[in-house]
Amino acid sequence: MTWKREVIEDPYNSLSEILLIILAGSSLFFQFYAGLGIFLLCFLYFRARKWYLENIGKELKLNQPPKRVRIHCEERGNWEIHFTNDGLPVWGAVMKLTFKDIVEPVNHPFESYHGGNVEVSIPVSMGRAESVKVSLPIVGKRRGLCRLTKVQIVIPHLFGSGKVLLDLVEPVKSTLMVFPAPAPVILDRNHHSHEIGEVPALHSLFFDVFQPVGTREYISGDRFQDIHWKASARTQSLQTKVFAPSVKKEWMIAVNLSEKYSITRDLETIIKHTAYLMQMAVKQNISFSLVLNIRNQGVTPFYYLPSGTGRKHQQKALEMLSTLSTDDATIPFHIVLQHLSIRQLVPAVLIAAGVLTGDDEGRLSKLESKQREIYVLHSVDKQGVVSLWNQRSKIPS
């Protein structure tokens, strides 16, 4: 890591050195050797003090591996910073960290500045050839990706005035991500798929061949591979495996973040409702994919998370939502829907969120004609509601 050094010392020190040289010369001229010794010791003190300021902190290194800490809103965590000092011992120093108010320090005094910046001061001391880990307790305050925008170490002189300012030039690779807080959403109806899948159901035309629940007597027409040979040998009659009924449950959550020529003013509300839908899908073992009309480089020109389920999949989706900003460039939502339709990525259930234009609704009509159920996420009296498209109902009781 590269540091920008700035040495701040008393401007009268140079004048003091010149005065000491003159006094030492005068003492030598008048053969006042005791005074000469005193003046030379004082001069050596000033030179040693200056040498200390010029060399302190030169071998200080920041050993910060690329690491991302993930927390939820109002959840506590620790931001760790690792230093190695191969030079002169550093005592009584103060490290100042500046970052966005996405998180706030805990048990440490801090100052807030204009623009949503937070600065916290942490005392630091380290000896020669010593590695130190500085841990800053923090709490998540709002959704976002937090980086250290400024790292400064102030090293004071041990025996006099003056100090050294070390400003980190290179960016710190360690980041802290705060996931959005989910806001409740009500579904006015449940969708039951008519496709083969792996989610258990009470009634279904399909069965999960990986979930046998028992056996029954063989009936003419049963598949040969469904015969349970061990059970047949035990009962001396052919037995057929019985499988658990299952269906396919899959959602696609497509979010339109644009409104006219900018990011929608309801960005945070939409993100919170989307986070709740993903949480609901994980609890009900429903596979889901996430689509955001934010420009992206690659084969898919927008943010797209393929279908999946489980906590790890939910974490990937939350990371996508956490990094969204009002400065992101968007792509028209109807183009996104067209791209998904051409690649046949739209499942049986599509949940659209955000402001829908005439072109968007025209594309949704074409998807609906392909036996897809289209739902919309909207707000009714500040309550999130998911209802059938063009059939928005009031909040279910």
From TrEMBL:
User: Locate the DUF58 domain: which residues?
Assistant: 215-323
Q: Which domain of life is it from?
A: Bacteria
| Keyword Cell membrane annotated | no
> Which parts pass through the membrane?
20-46
From which source organism is this entry? Rossellomorea oryzaecorticis
Keyword vocabulary terms for this entry:
Membrane, Transmembrane, Transmembrane helix
* Pfam families for the chain: DUF58
Q: What is this protein called?
A: DUF58 domain-containing protein
